Amino acid sequence: MPAPPPTVLVGDLSLDIINQSQRVIDMDDRIAELEPNAAPLVVLLKKLKKVQAISPKVEWLEHLLMPRYDVLTASSAAASTSLAVAHGSFFRVGDVLRDTATGEAMEVTAVAGNTLTVNRGIGTVAAVTTGAADEIFIVSNVNVEGASLRTIKQTKLNNLFNFCEIVRTPFGITGTEAASKLYGGPDRARLQATNAIEHMRDWEHICFFGARKEDTTTSGAPKRFAGGLIEYLQTNITGTVGTLTEAAWVAFLRSGFRYGSERKILFASPLVIQAIEGFARNNIRVSPSSDHADTYGIQMKTYVSGQGIVDIVMERAWNDSTAYRGFAFLIDMDAIEYHTLRDTKLLEGRQANDADKLEDEYLTEACPVVKNEPKHALLTGVTG
User: Fold this and answer.
1) What phi and psi values does residue 314 have, to the nearest 5 degrees?
2) What is the dihedral of CA 45, 47, 49, 54, to 10 degrees?
């Protein structure tokens, strides 16, 4: 059979008519990663608070001080010496109380269940009728000279826990692909870099949104899920915010800084940061000495308030979610740790012995430890 006839080109050669396989492509050897810094919280935890775990169940103890506030569950006439409270266990004989609604001070003389017997109208405020939901503040205690010890009460330590979750990120190439010369360099090295990012993204998501559970359904093969901040935060949650006003923002900080450090980190979606930046728009000034004197705008890094100092870190990926784009976590970094039973390792050569391929994986067995959850705060539902 004769050879097929050649393609005949007329005139000067140009790039659009030559065989395209002949062209050398101007290919950058570097692969552009869309999200190279996808896990800021995990990076910080690994640098600041990484702890070696010795068991897949990580436990810790926390102590709360005796409560100082309770509420009345029924009204009480001015002449009555009986008060019904929500938690009688908070009180002892000798406690000095204030009804914060009326200002009246009282002395507890007996406690029976959730009923207190009191001396009314101590001090300058006379006894008045109390409301059914009045707040009661335990100011202190009073004792007569020579008295024996008052009733001893103290809070029981709380036992908290989390489970170390096994996270694996496998990847691989065939032997043929490994032997081929590629733009961007060998694919195995590239995959090791990109899957390291993917692995860290998993841990970032676990630290915020992980769900805690130990599944022992299959004997000999327990499966453990690590709980994230969203599993532990209960006290300081500001939800369904809508448009974030400066007043609402300051109220959120007031609750978030009630306990813990005076400097915390806010991990926030771009939408929440946009709202916070808006508070300062009217105060923007152009500095004549700046290298960018003709540039307007604001890049918020730290927010200084009377409640505390907030360092702001943007979680760009949350913008992809219809719900989490309205989220922000205020984290006390002194009260969160990253416990590793098996720290992150690149395990090479995980393919079967007879497989003509190269397979590696990243493996981590770890969990976040969220201590003293009232030191942290959660803001949700921001729409602008």
Assistant:
1) -85, 130
2) 100
Distance between CA 226 and CA 209 in Å, rounded? 9
Q: What share of the chain is helix, strand, coil (3-state, %, to 5)?
A: 20, 30, 45
Do 83 and 109 meet the contact criterion of CB atoms below 8 Å apart?
A: no
State pLDDT tens for residues 216-244. 999 999 999 999 999 999 999 999 999 99
Q: pLDDT value at position 5?
A: 73
Helices (runs of H) and strands (runs of E) counted in the chain: 6, 20
CA distances from 41 to 90, 123, 201, 249 (A): 38, 52, 10, 22
- Spatial separation of the C-alpha atoms in residues 47 and 11, rounded to whole Å: 65
Q: At what angle do helices 40-48 and 187-209 cross, to 10 degrees?
A: 80
d(CA 208, CA 380): 13
Listed residue (132, 151, 35) closest to 85, CA to CA: 132
Mean local confidence (pLDDT), 11-26: 54
Q: What is d(CA 376, CA 384) in angstroms, rounded to the nearest whole number?
A: 23
Tokens for 236?
Answer: 């300081």
Tokens of 365: 């067995």
- Quick one: three-class SS letters along 308-336? CEEEEEECHHHHHCCCHHHCEEEECHHHE
